[in-house]
Amino acid sequence: MDLKFTAEDQKFREEAREWLNANVFKERRPHGGDEMREYDLAWQKCQYDGGWAGVSWPEEYGGMGLGLTRQLIWYEEYARANAPDNHLCFVGLNHGGPTIIAHGDADQKKEHLRSILSGEKIWCQGFSEPNAGSDLASLKTRAYVDGNELVITGSKIWTSHGHLSDMQELLVRTDPEAPKHKGISWVIFDMNTPGLELRPIEIMTAPNHTHFVQCFYDEARVPLKNVVGGLNNGWSVAMSTLGFERGTAQIKDQIRYAFLVEEMIARARERYGAAFLDGDEFGSRLAQLRADMAAARAMTYMVVSRAQHDVSPAMASLMRAMVGQVQQRVRRLAFDIIGADGLENPEDDDWVYFYLRTYATTIAAGTSQIQRNIIGERVLGLPRS
Amino acid sequence: MDLLPSDDQQQIVDTIKDFLRNEAPVDRLREFGAIGNPDALLWPQLGELGFFALGLPDDRGGVGLSAAEEMLAFQQFGYHLVSPGIFGLVLGARIAAFAGEDALRDELLAGGIKVGLANSRGAAGAADEYHLFEAEEAAWVLLVSEEGAALYPRDAFSEIVRVNSTDSALVLERAKLSGAPRVAISAETDNIHDRALMLMGAYAVGVSEGARDLAVDYSKIREQFGKPIGAFQSIKHVCADMAIRSEAALCQASFAALVMDEGSPDTPFHATASKIVACETAVRNAADCIQVHGAFGFTAEANVHHYLKRAHVADMMWGSLREQRRRILTFPTPA
Ligand SMILES: Cc1cc2nc3c(=O)[nH]c(=O)nc-3n(C[C@H](O)[C@H](O)[C@H](O)COP(=O)(O)OP(=O)(O)OC[C@H]3O[C@@H](n4cnc5c(N)ncnc54)[C@H](O)[C@@H]3O)c2cc1C
Fold this sequence. Notes:
The structure holds 2 protein chains of 2 kinds.
Chain A: H1 7-23, H2 33-49, H3 68-80, H4 90-103, H5 106-117, E1 123-126, E2 142-146, E3 149-160, E4 167-173, E5 184-190, E6 196-202, E7 210-223, E8 227-228, H6 234-242, H7 250-272, H8 281-308, H9 316-337, H10 350-357, H11 368-379
Parallel strand pairs in A: 1-4
Antiparallel strand pairs in A: 2-3, 3-7, 4-5, 5-8, 6-7
Helix pairs in contact in A: 1-3, 3-7, 4-5, 4-6, 7-8, 7-9, 8-9, 9-10, 9-11
Chain B: H1 7-23, H2 27-32, H3 43-48, H4 67-79, H5 85-98, H6 102-109, E1 115-120, E2 129-133, E3 140-145, E4 148-153, E5 157-163, E6 172-177, E7 183-186, H7 192-221, E8 223-224, E9 227-228, H8 233-261, H9 267-293, H10 304-316, H11 321-328
Parallel strand pairs in B: 1-3
Antiparallel strand pairs in B: 1-2, 2-6, 3-4, 4-7, 5-6, 8-9
C-alpha cells in the first residue's frame, strides 16, 4: 500500500497542471443548444492541439498512449483547474471511440478515431428503446441486410444530445430468430442519414431544456462496413467497453463534489453565521458528506489499484453505486442550504439546476437497482433473481 | 500509488486471519457465557507473533512497519470482534515506547498484562466521569484525548462501579478519574489520538465486513418460497448496500493510514473521516444483518447481535459520530 506517485508521474502532473492553468476555458459552459456544441468542440480541439486529448488512447490515433494512473492524474488536475466537462464528447471519447479501438477494423479506425479526439465529431449513444431500458438485450430496432447495406427501422430513446451529434453508436437487431443476446449488431450510424427523424425531449431541470431525443429510423440505410466487431456480435462488443475507463473519469466528479461541499460549508457559514453549523442538522449533514467525499475519492484510487492487479472489474460497480448516491445527497443539501431561494430557478446559479439534474445519476447508465443486482450476483455470489 | 496490500502486507494479513480463524472464531463469544470474553488468553500468543508492535518504529522496540500494516491488523481484529482491550495494549505500548519506559513497553508488547480503556461519558456525565472497558483485572487503563495519551494505574480511578454492559461480551464499569497518569505523552510527541481514531476506523471496517459476510452467507443457505432468500432482490440489494458501504469504509481507512504514514497535515482530517464513515457503516450493516436473519437474528443464539453492539462501542469510543462530525468541520480543506 502506498500513495506515492513516481517521479515521472509527478512530472506529468506538473506539466498537465501548467498546461491546464494556461488553457482552460474561463467562459461558463452553456446549458444547451448549438452554443454548447460549439463550446464543447472548441475545448476538445484545444486539448487535442495542446497534445493532451486521449491520455489513454493509442498514439497512432492521436492519443498519448499512457496508463490508468496517468489518466487518473490528468482527471485530478483537470478538476482542480476547474476545466469544463465537455459532456458532448463523452460518448465518443469513452464508448464509441474505445469500442472501435478494441473491435474496429483498420478502415473504421482510420475513418473515425481521430475526429473524435480532435473535436470535429460528436457521438451519441443509441442503445435504449421505449421498451428496452434495463432489459437492454430485448431491443427491437430491426436491421436487415440488403446488398452491401443495412436497412434500419425502429426507434431509440433517451439519446443524450442526439440533436447535437454527428455520429451514433447504434445497437440493432440483425437476427430476430437468434436468442436475444445473439442477434444484435453494433453499428456506426451517421446522424445525417435519410430516414432518421428526431423528437426532442425536454427534461425536468427547467422549461426548454432539451437533453435528449427520441430517434425514429424509417428504412435508414447504412453501409454494411459500418458494423463493428462482426454481424450479430454486437452484445459482446457493447459489453466489453462499457467499463472501459473503469471509473477513472469519475475522479473528476469526486473532486468537483468535494470542492462543492467546501463551498457549501462556506456558504452555510456566510448565510447562517459561523456558530450555526455547530449542532445544527445542516452541520451534521455537511460533516458526513465531507467524510463521504473523502471515502469516494479513496474508492477511485482503489479502482485504479485493483485494475493494476487485474481484479474483477465488477468491483468497480461498488464505487459507482456509492458515488451516485453521494452526489444526490450533496446536491440535495446544497438546495436545502439556499432555503426558500431554491424555489427560484435562476439561470446564473447552478445549485438548483444541478440539484434537479442529480435525479438522473441513479438512472442513467444502469439504474441503482440494476447495479445492486450486479453487485449481489457478481461480487457477492448471491443466486440470480 | 496502490491502495491494495503488497505481498508482504498480505502475508501479515493472512497470518493474522489464520490465527484468528482458529483461535478466535466469533462463536467463542456465545460459548464463553453470558458476560465477558476469553480474549485475554490470546494476548501472549499475539504478542509473541509481534502483532502489537507492527507500527512501532524499530528504534523504539517495534517491528518498524507502518500505519498501513497496523490498519490491516485492526481490520482483522474488528472482523473477529476481538476485545477492544487490544487497543489498550497496542496504544499503551506506544505511549510507553515514546515516553522511554522500555520495560513497561516490552511487558505490554509481550501481552502478559491487561490494559483497559477509559472513555469519557461525554454529556452523560461530569468531566471526570468515565466508562472503563475491559479494565476489571487490568493493571493499566488507557486514556486518549486530543491533547495526548496516557496510561493510568487502575487505582487512579475511584468510585468504580460495575454496570451491565450493552455489549455483554465486554466488561463495563463506571468510574471517576481522581489520580495522576503513570506514563503520558503529548500530542506533539506522537499523533496517538489520530492513530487511535484511524485504528478504530479500521476496526469498524472489520465489524462492517463481518456483518456483511454473515448476512451474505445466510442469504445463500436460508430458503423460503422454494429458493434461497438471497435470490429475492429486497435481500440481495440490502447485501449489495452492505458491500458498497464496507468498500467505502475500507478505502477511506486505507487512505487514512497512508496519509498518516506520509506525515501529512491532513492526517487528522482523514483519520476522523475514516472513523465517521466506518462507524456509520458498522452500525448500519449490523442492523441490516439482523433483518436479513429474521427472528434468528433477534436471538442470542445467532452471532449477529454482537456485531451491532460492538459497532456501537466503536462509535462511542473517543468521540461518537456526533462529536466527530463536529470536529471534521473544523479542519481545513484537505489536499
Ligand atoms: C440523463 C439520462 C441520459 C441517458 N442517456 C442515454 C443515452 O445517451 N443513450 C441511451 O441509449 N440511453 C440513455 N439513457 C437511458 C438509460 O440507459 C436508461 O434510462 C436505463 O438503462 C434504465 O432504463 P429505463 O429508463 O427504461 O427504466 P426501466 O428499465 O423501465 O426501469 C424502471 C424502474 O424499474 C427498475 N427495474 C427494471 N428492471 C429491474 C430489475 N430487473 N430489477 C430491479 N429493478 C428493476 C429500475 O431500476 C427503475 O427503477 C439515459 C438516461 C438518463 C436518465
